[in-house]
Design a protein that fits this description.
Layout: E1 2-9, H1 13-25, E2 29-33, H2 36-46, E3 48-54, E4 56-57, E5 60-61, H3 66-72, E6 78-82, H4 87-96, E7 100-103, H5 108-144, H6 149-161, E8 168-171, H7 178-187, E9 196-200, H8 206-214, E10 215-216, E11 228-229, H9 231-234, E12 239-243, H10 250-262, E13 264-266, E14 273-275, E15 279-284, H11 288-293, H12 299-305, E16 308-311, H13 322-336, H14 346-353, H15 360-374, H16 377-389, E17 393-395, E18 404-406, H17 436-458, H18 463-470, H19 474-484
Parallel strand pairs: 1-2, 1-3, 3-6, 6-7, 8-15, 8-16, 9-12, 12-15
Antiparallel strand pairs: 4-5, 10-11, 13-14, 17-18
Helix pairs in contact: 10-12, 13-15, 17-18, 17-19, 18-19
Length: 489
């Protein structure tokens, strides 16, 4: 955000000049736009300390600028300028996220006081948010490198390379905390005060990922109504994390290689090269060496990004971290969902220690989250027991690498009599002579059904609230309700 810079958006040149004179006399720099397109371009380029928007503009309502401006920079305070008959528009503007409004005509002192008020209020709000974020980052950093020898070795590498611009490749299974390691690298570097930008290469198709990374010029293609700055530019002087780098299209791999070699690139449709000054960190849960041998990943790019390789071990290989992680997630979600404090029983903690955690830290977090929401440890214990007894997870002797590992599926069929319990009329039916694989699928579906039904009852069948608690989309919940045959009583 550029300090002491105000963006004024008004199509009346006389009023715009009047307002500019008021602000300039007080030492405030003003940039002026007369329509929505100009306003967004100036806002994205300069990131002003405040934006003053007139409601009526030649190409539409100034209210329509609020959301795209918030998407570019959520911290910038926005003041709407309204006439006497624009009450409905003011109400809509405040709902969209405007900080305040001022009616025409106004005196110079009124405008200055209004700007100072929103600046002070916004500054206080973001200072508090920054403090909370910093506390959380510090706590996550402490947890990341807490107890285990394996993570201490990771921390040693982070400390060695943090203050260099060496390109780092972070590898490890899904849910192990690769993003946290990348943030730790950024936090310990000279770039800590600059942006940390994450891009998930697997979340976007090739064309969208290219424009997301490199941006585009106005008119570069149909729908490119204004210039868009890419993530590399937004991360200028900071750090960019390319998560799931293995999923990047080969065409983009060559463009990324150019960025790494030349420290510059072209926006889509651009004729001028843009210089890059940001540290590039890459992460993946795939074995890139195998992908290179199979021709699915560029060999020259692999050597460029694999200067230093940090391997984040799975949770099953650092089980001494489990109690501290569980305690952290308990406190975090108790506060988030305003629930009473819970204590994990010795029995459940023992089960945590004896589990292989295929989903790693993320799976542990989700289990604690569910425990906080439902407040029922017995159900979580039952589900973990079901995984051990009915699924494809079996206990292994103490002293091995711990937990429950996949058991081989036998050729024999399972007698149907084992499943003829008849205890629950709502249980999903299992075909006779099912294989272990089919039984494991049944156990998973039945546990899923029980969880969804419990949350729906808890929310009195408020499906949107239930979807939020279960951390799935509303449409996905409706599909699951139908699939499980659940009906409101």
């Amino acid at each position: 955000m550029t300090q002491n810079l105000v963006l004024l958006v008004d199509d009346d040149p006389v009023f715009a000049q009047f307002t500019q004179n008021i602000l300039t006399e007080k030492g405030i720099k003003v940039i002026t736009a007369f329509n929505k397109a100009e306003a967004l371009d100036l806002f994205e380029r300069h990131h002003p300390s405040c934006a003053i928007l007139d409601i009526f503009l030649p190409d539409g309502s100034g209210v329509d600028l609020i959301k795209p401006m918030r998407a570019i920079d959520s911290k910038t305070p926005i003041v709407m300028v309204s006439g006497q008959s624009e009450v409905d528009d003011v109400v809509r503007a405040m709902k969209e996220g405007a900080n305040d409004y001022i009616k025409k005509p106004f005196r110079g002192e009124e405008l200055l006081i209004k700007i100072q008020m929103v600046l002070d209020s916004t500054k206080t709000k973001w200072e508090l948010e920054t403090l909370k974020t910093q506390v959380r980052v510090d706590e996550e950093y402490r947890l990341l490198f807490s107890l285990s020898d394996r993570m201490s070795k990771v921390q040693a590498i982070v400390d060695q390379v943090a203050n260099t611009d060496i390109t780092v490749l972070i590898t490890g299974e899904s849910g192990t905390g690769k993003e946290l390691v990348a943030k730790a690298l950024h936090k310990a570097s000279d770039r800590a005060g600059e942006p940390f930008i994450k891009v998930n290469c697997a979340a976007l198709p090739r064309e969208l990922l290219e424009s997301e990374l490199f941006g585009f010029e106005k008119g570069a293609f149909t729908g490119a109504h204004r210039r868009k700055y890419g993530r590399f530019e937004i991360a200028q002087n900071g750090t960019i994390l390319l998560d799931e780098i293995s999923e990047m299209h080969p065409d983009l791999q060559s463009k990324l290689l150019h960025v790494l070699q030349e420290k510059q690139f072209y926006r889509i449709g651009g004729e001028r090269e843009v210089k890059v000054n940001c540290r590039i960190i890459n992460a993946t849960n795939k074995k890139l060496e195998e992908m290179v041998d199979e021709g699915r990943f560029r060999r020259d790019l692999f050597y460029r990004i694999n200067v230093v390789n940090i391997v984040v071990p799975p949770l099953r290989e650092r089980k001494e971290d489990i109690p501290l992680l569980a305690e952290y997630f308990l406190k975090r979600y108790e506060e988030m969902y305003n629930r009473d404090s819970l204590t994990i029983s010795p029995r459940l903690m023992e089960m945590f220690h004896n589990y292989a955690w295929p989903g790693n830290v993320r799976e542990l977090e989700n289990n604690i989250k569910r425990l906080i929401i439902l407040g029922n440890e017995a159900q979580l214990i039952a589900e973990m027991e079901r995984k051990r007894e009915n699924g494809r997870l079996v206990a292994i002797p103490a002293g091995d690498r711990g937990g429950y590992l996949p058991r081989p599926e036998p050729a024999d069929r399972i007698p149907a009599a084992i499943w003829n319990t008849g205890n629950n009329q709502n249980d999903l039916s299992i075909p006779e002579k099912s294989t272990l694989k089919e039984v494991a699928k049944f156990a998973q579906r039945n546990a899923e059904r029980e969880l969804i039904e419990r949350v729906l009852r808890q929310t009195r069948w408020n499906r949107r609230k239930a979807a939020q608690i279960l951390d799935i989309s509303y449409k996905a919940l409706l599909y699951k309700i139908k699939e499980c045959g659940l009906n409101q009583e």
